[in-house]
Amino acid sequence: MNSVLIIDDEEKIRTLLARIIGLEGFEVYQAADGKTALKKLDQQEIDVALCDVKLPDSNGVELVKEIKQKFPSTEVILLTAYGNIADGVQAIKNGAFDYITKGNDNDRIIPLLHRALEKAAFAKRIKQLEKRVGSKYSFNEIIGASVPITEAIALAKKVAATDTTVLLLGETGTGKEIFAQAIHEASGRSSKSFVAVNCSAFSRELLESELFGHKAGAFTGAIKDKKGLFEEADGGTIFLDEIGEMPVELQARLLRVLETGEFIKVGDTKTIKVNVRIIAATNRDLQQEIKEEKFRSDLFYRLSAFQISLPSLKQRIQDIEALASFFIMVFANKTNKAVPVMEKEYLIALKRYPWPGNIRELKNVIERSVILEDAGKLTIQTLPLELQSAQQQTTGMSAFDLSSVEKLHIQKVLNYTKGNKTEAARLLNIGLTTLYRKIDEYKIG
């Protein structure tokens, strides 16, 4: 049950609020001062605190800061008897979710509570994910309802219960590692290690040592024995990302592990046997790599016993809004902001853009937008220019049209100056009056 703590020294107000909130199905706790409130927060997991500004032993505005420092997942709504804008602004800066005036804003309390609870729930979810070793994911964490992604999830769920080797295919940024972790979590190996390695991140010698380990003295700098990642993953799953980048010399060693479950450490003569499931991933065309003799055909057939192709983001436009909404919640929480709303033009731009970097690129764009917004709305001006251009094309303006280029450039400069028009006019080397005229002409928000 969702929990709410009411912090107010007036018993009648506490009782009234407790009754109203309790009837909505919340578990309600009460505190008459700041000290009692902090004690309650220590004892109970509180989702939202409704806090009065004037308390017998503390100031509610400052208490907000203390609560957010000690209990970051708890959202705080400030209650004030007077519409003091300065207090409200400072409360928001200190981390408050929002502030309302007693009596005048009673109708806002319940809707505001639900919004705060939504943010608190996301904060808890993120915190739980960060605490889990290796940032584990289940299929429930994969966002999307489009046909391509649901078909990929269905295939992954079927193969997860087996020990079959899986090859994940797809463009960079489509979530191949998340799928690999979800398969591991849904398998009988979930209690054992999930180990991920990017084959493109190491030289041949270093990758060999990382995968298979080495004996002391095997090469310069090998001062002691080292376990390889296959040993670390014994009983569990190893995820070989960018398998197409693995040097041909190491492919034979990997093939032996697949066929026999055995390998030899670098510089050793003793065979080590492991029980490891292999999930590999690539954005390369391995069939073409085989023709060019860059990839072994026998290894390919071993790895591709069960293939899953992950769709690019442009193949799942239907999911963009849900993915964007999730990332907005994540970054609003991380930057301690109220969750902003996407304007219609903003969402249109997201859906029109081809997303060559897929979900990873979308995540980065949303993070940028959340950082730049300051009015509770994500506008097209918070997007990179290439996305703004995508939206402009929907309104009939050509990206090569001079006026389009000028508008985008003015928007870019205004973004850079954070809306300071005097500074923007100086940088553009035009008069302030001219800038205002062009802002009006191009309807720049």
Outline:
With 445 residues, this protein is α/β, with parallel strands linked by helices.
Describe this protein's structure:
The protein has 445 residues and is an alpha/beta fold. It folds into 3 domains: 129 residues, Response regulator (Rossmann fold), CATH 3.40.50; 173 residues, P-loop containing nucleotide triphosphate hydrolases (Rossmann fold, 3-Layer(aba) Sandwich), CATH 3.40.50; 128 residues, Helicase, Ruva Protein, domain 3, CATH 1.10.8. Helices cover 48% and strands 13% of the residues. The chain has 19 helices and 14 strands. The strands form 4 sheets. Strands 2-1-3-4-5 form a 5-stranded parallel β-sheet, with helices on both faces. It has a 5-stranded parallel β-sheet with strand order 7-8-11-6-12. Strand 3, helix 3 and strand 4 form a beta-alpha-beta unit. Helix 6 runs parallel beside helix 7 and helix 13 crosses helix 15. The two termini are 42 Å apart.
| Total helical segments | 19
Can you name the CATH architecture of the largest domain?
Answer: 3-Layer(aba) Sandwich
Strand order of the largest sheet: 2-1-3-4-5
CATH topology of the largest domain: Rossmann fold
Overall number of structural domains: 3
Morphology call:
globular
DSSP strand tally: 14
Helix content: 40-55%
From the N-terminal CA to the C-terminal CA, the straight-line distance is: 42 Å
The major β-sheet equals: 5 strands, parallel
**Radius of gyration (Å):** 28 Å
The first-level CATH class name of the largest domain:
Alpha Beta
